Amino acid sequence: QVQLVESGGGLVQPGGSLRLSCAASGSIFSVYAMGWYRQAPGKQRELVAAITSGGSTNYADSVKGRFTISKNNAKNTVYLQMNSLKPEDTAVYYCNADILRDSVGVPHDYWGQGTQVTVSS
C-alpha cells in the first residue's frame, strides 16, 4: 500500500518560515501530482499548493509569493517552503498525491496523516 509521511510542522512566530516535507513510499508506478491542503479549526479543507509530474504548479491566492512547492522525483517527495507566515496560516497541513500503482490501472488519491502548523506570537 502507498503511504505518505509528512514532517516539518511546528510552532513559529508571524513572519517566520517552515518547510514541510512529504515522502511517498510503497508500490508506486507513477505519481501524477502531489499537493498540500490545509484545514483550520471550524473551516473546510482548502488547497494550498499543487505540483504535477511535469512541474506545473498551482497556488491558493492567499499564499502566492510566500509559499513555494517543489519536488524530488527520485525520492517521490514533495516540499512546501512557507515564508512570511501569518496567523491565518495556522492549520493542519495534509499531503495529497494522485498515484498510479500499476501500468494498466487507474490513479488513486492518497493522503498523509497531517502535520500541525501554528503561527502565533
Q: Which helices and strands, and how do they pair?
A:
Blueprint: E1 3-7, E2 10-12, E3 18-25, E4 30-39, E5 46-52, E6 57-59, E7 67-72, E8 77-82, E9 91-100, E10 108-111, E11 115-119
Proportion of helical residues? under 10%
Tertiary shape: elongated
Number of helices: 0
Strand segment count: 11
Roughly how many Å is the radius of gyration?
14 Å
Average pLDDT confidence is: 95
Which residues sit in consecutive blocks of at least 5 with pLDDT less than 50? Answer: none
Strand content: over 45%
Measure the end-to-end span: 40 Å
Structural class: mainly beta
Describe what is shown at a glance.
The protein is mostly beta strands. 0% of the residues lie in helices and 55% in strands.
Walk me through this protein's architecture.
The structure is a single chain. With 121 residues, this protein is mainly β. Helix content is 0%, strand content 55%. It is built from no helices and 11 strands. Strands 2, 4, 5, 6, 9, 10 and 11 form a 7-stranded mixed β-sheet that branches. A 4-stranded antiparallel β-sheet has the order 1-3-8-7, with no helix packed on it. A hairpin with a 6-residue loop joins strand 4 and strand 5. The protein is elongated, with a radius of gyration of 14 Å. The termini are far apart.
Features:
121 residues; mainly beta; seven-stranded mixed β-sheet; four-stranded antiparallel β-sheet
